[in-house]
Structures are given as structure tokens and as C-alpha cells.
Specification:
214 residues, Arc Repressor Mutant, subunit A, 2 domains, 77% helix
């Protein structure tokens, strides 16, 4: 009989396989073999391989976003009645990614590689899924970041934040199998926040000047 632990076993197996091979190269049969369940259990709990992938990402991204909102609310409250600094807001946005990889310990590298592969996957429906999972985070963070950068238009801000998200995905893909020490993780976080702060403050060069220089 299928049990709640069966669902967890399937998610654990899929997470490991997706991290190592990617979504397309992983079959349902391989997931059942590693999870030690039958195909019927996957169909009962999820219905499809696509739903398994969403289940793995949801159980990681849900707590990540919860932590982001907690840090953002604290930053806003601490700065009231003024706006929080851009660095503080970016810390609230990026810190949870580093924290979850640190706190997961043995699973950390697997989760990092899984997120790197998944959010770097160009498949349209996977990209759409990722956008849906982070839509609430975008709705919460972008207005606060915009208040720190009144001279930056919404379209430009959205583009720059998408590049920062890509930088975080790169952190996932390069996360060492042995994990990071607290000092190493703190340094990685400080570098990303510092780089991102400078990128958001950067002046937009004249397009014609850039074109002629090229």
C-alpha cells in the first residue's frame, strides 16, 4: 500500500536523479528503481514525470520563498519609516539560497545541482514553471527594490533582476560537492550581493556609443 513516506521516497529519488542527469535523461522507471516503488505509486501520488519535477521544486522553493518574505518583512520593519537599503533587500532575496544549501548538509550539493539544472533548463514548460514559482517573490521584492532605485525604469529593473537570478543559478551549478564552510558561504553571499548592488546602480550607457565602440 502506498503511504506518505512513499511520496517522500519518490521525491528523494527524483531529486537525486534529476540533479545528476537532468529531467530529460531521467525516466520514470529509473525513479521507481531508486525509490524502490512500483510505477503505480508514481501515478497515484503524481500522475506524471512532469508533476514529479514540480513536486521536487515545490518542496525546495516553498520554504525558500517563505524565508525570503520573512527577511524582507524584517528589513522593511527595521528601516521604517524609511526604505530599507538596497543591500539589505538583496540580502533578503539571496541569503535564503545560501542558507538552504548550508542547512541541508548532505543533501546540499544534490539540491544545488538540481536547482542549477532545472532553472537553467531552456524547455519552455520548465521555464514557465520556474516563473510561476517565483511570481510571488517578484511581486513582493520588485516594488521595494524600485523604491531604492527611483531613476531606474521597471523594464530595466526587471531585466537586471533576471540577470541577478541567473547569477544565483550559477552559484547552484558550481556549488562544491563537499559543500562550503560558513566562512566560504558568507564570502560567496557577500560577493553576489556586492556585485548585484553595483549592477543595479550602474548607469545605462548610450546605445549608439556602445554600438560604435563595438
Amino acid at each position: 500500500m502506498s503511504t506518505p513516506s512513499t511520496k517522500t521516497d519518490i521525491l528523494d529519488a527524483a531529486e537525486t536523479l534529476f540533479a545528476a542527469r537532468g529531467y530529460d535523461a531521467t525516466s520514470i522507471r529509473e525513479i521507481t528503481r531508486v525509490a524502490e516503488v512500483n510505477v503505480a505509486a508514481i501515478h497515484y501520488h503524481f500522475g506524471s514525470k512532469e508533476a514529479v519535477l514540480r513536486g521536487v521544486t515545490d518542496r525546495i522553493v516553498g520554504p525558500l520563498n517563505g524565508r525570503r518574505f520573512e527577511l524582507l518583512d524584517a528589513a522593511i520593519a527595521d528601516a521604517a519609516p524609511d526604505h530599507p537599503s538596497l543591500e539589505t533587500v538583496l540580502l533578503a532575496f539571496i541569503r535564503p539560497d545560501v542558507e538552504v544549501l548550508q542547512h541541508l548538509q548532505q543533501r546540499g550539493p544534490t539540491v544545488a545541482h538540481f536547482l542549477g539544472r532545472t532553472y537553467g533548463d531552456p524547455t519552455p514548460w520548465i521555464r514557465e514553471m520556474a516563473s510561476e514559482q517565483f511570481s510571488e517573490a517578484a511581486a513582493r521584492f520588485l516594488p521595494v527594490i524600485a523604491s531604492c532605485l527611483p531613476g531606474l525604469g521597471g523594464e530595466e529593473l526587471g531585466w537586471r533582476m533576471s540577470q541577478i537570478a541567473t547569477l544565483v543559478v550559477l552559484l547552484f551549478t558550481t556549488w562544491p560537492d563537499g559543500g562550503m564552510t560558513d566562512d566560504e558561504a558568507d564570502l560567496a553571499l557577500a560577493r553576489i550581493v556586492g556585485f548585484s548592488t553595483a549592477a543595479l546602480h550602474a548607469r545605462i550607457p548610450d546605445v549608439e556609443v556602445v554600438t560604435r565602440s563595438g
